[in-house]
Amino acid sequence: MTSSSISQFVLFETGGIQFGLDRRMIGCVGPKNYALRAVKIPDLRKRFGLPGDQLNLIDLSKAPVGRLASSPERDSEVILLNGNTGLALLADKIGKTLKVDTDHLYDLPPAFTGNARACFPKVLRMAGTMALIIDVKGLKFIRSMMHPSAAKYRKRGKSDGTRPHPDRLRQDALVVPLDGNRLEVAIIQRLSHVIGKQVDKVVSRAIADIRERQNINTKRHQCEYSPSRIERDAKKDNGLKRMARG
Amino acid sequence: MKAAKKKADRIQSAGKVFIFPAFAPEHEEKQVFYLFSLRQVVEVLRAVKILPVPFSPCGTEGVAEWRGRVVPVLSLEKYLGINWSGEPKRVRSIALRSVGKSKKERIEDLYAIVNVGVKVEQLELPLECDAAETPEWITETSCLIGTYQMPNRLLLVVDIEKILFAQRGVAEW
């Protein structure tokens, strides 16, 4: 008897086909035409393989299934994959995040072989929803679906060749629609990891960045984590450290 | 008593077959049908919602949900290499079953959904038919077990087991 485990999958649609991607594989999401930016924190930069790297942008709607449901110049979003994959996915619409246990994941039938099986080994079936679960390793081998203009994510402020001011290098994580709430995926996901590792300096800098951005005249939405909660956790960690030192 | 009745039913059902119109041109003024045994045809369905699968082999249209399973939706015409430009007026979906050996050498039941013409006929075995030459416009014969002709009908027997268990060399993306 196998025990089921719960995973979170983010659903997105492209070319009229519904896909699911493990939430842990998502670095961040942003509009295609927006210069994607990353928080200036060394650990995070390494984690995303940004900025200045050139990524391969995959458009699954162009995959050969006999139709192309959307126009090439559509208003899409880009899902940047985590780790050192060097890949990003084009999405027409990003849907909800589902908590799924393995009982709702079905193997792709044996009639599907080759690249189809490598890229989509599982099918999610839950509450009237069906989605193809993406295996990122399989996607790496799909060269023909690379978007003609690979996504480029650059630092700002380097054009004059002089050393840029740290403030000009500091960049914001993008606000993304996820679970119907606006979350700063880059900061929130990574901060929860960073807090766990008790890196006080990084947390303090992130808090300062968030506070500074709240004063900037851009669209923001409420985050799941509030600065006060982050501050409380940071203070708690500091207290524990002092106690440990004796 | 029950076991005997089951056995009798099984023998009787083994003597029946279904034929469904194929989406293919007429051959020598005979309409083309697919022939399946009673055991192979599990259910006749209403409209099925298909989820296309990118990079899928030629002949697989996608997957669909059926009785709590995820099953492939097949186009037998594409598997057989039939290029027919005609527009089917009405389409019926049927669920087919096949028993075979998986790659792990286990006996498994696999299912698939296939779109066929609406007109269904049930025939009793043995059929009064003769073996016939496969038409030239069927370009892929690896999935074809046999071709038979009756008055006004050309019957194609497709190797569903080979398709479902992916035992043939397929054109892949």
Q: Secondary structure elements and their pairing?
A:
The complex is a heterodimer of chains A (246) and B (173).
Chain A: E1 6-14, E2 17-22, E3 26-31, H1 42-48, E4 56-58, E5 77-81, E6 87-91, E7 93-101, E8 105-107, H2 114-119, E9 122-126, E10 129-133, H3 136-139, H4 166-169, E11 175-178, E12 181-184, H5 185-196, H6 200-214, H7 227-245
Helix pairs in contact in A: 5-6, 6-7
Chain B: H1 2-14, E1 16-21, E2 31-37, E3 41-45, E4 60-66, E5 69-74, H2 76-79, E6 91-101, E7 107-117, E8 121-124, E9 130-131, E10 144-150, E11 153-158, H3 160-164
Parallel strand pairs in B: 2-11, 5-7
Antiparallel strand pairs in B: 1-2, 1-8, 3-6, 4-5, 6-7, 9-10, 10-11
Quick structural summary:
The complex is a heterodimer of chains A (246) and B (173). Chain A has 246 residues and is an alpha+beta fold.
Q: What would you note in describing this structure?
A:
The complex is a heterodimer of chains A (246) and B (173). Mean pLDDT of chain A is 64; it is low at 34-51, 66-73, 148-189 and 220-226. Helices cover 27% and strands 26% of the residues of chain A. Chain A has a six-stranded mixed sheet, with no helix packed on it. Chain A has a four-stranded mixed sheet with strand order 3-5-6-4, with no helix packed on it. Chain A is α+β, with helices and mostly antiparallel strands and 246 residues long. In chain A, a hairpin with a 2-residue loop joins strand 1 (6-14) and strand 2 (17-22). Chain A contains seven helices and twelve strands. Chain B is mostly beta strands. In chain B, 13% of the residues lie in helices and 42% in strands. Chain B has three helices and eleven strands; from the N terminus they run αβββββαββββββα. In chain B, the strands form two sheets. A six-stranded mixed sheet of chain B has the order 8-1-2-11-10-9. In chain B, a hairpin with a 2-residue loop joins strand 4 and strand 5. The radius of gyration of chain B is 16 Å and the shape is globular. In chain B, 34% of the residues are buried. Chain A binds chain B through residues 16-18, 60, 63-67, 106-116, 119-120, 123, 125, 130-132, 142, and chain B through 49, 51-57, 60, 62-63, 65, 69-72, 74, 102-103, 110, 112, 163-166, 170, 172-173.
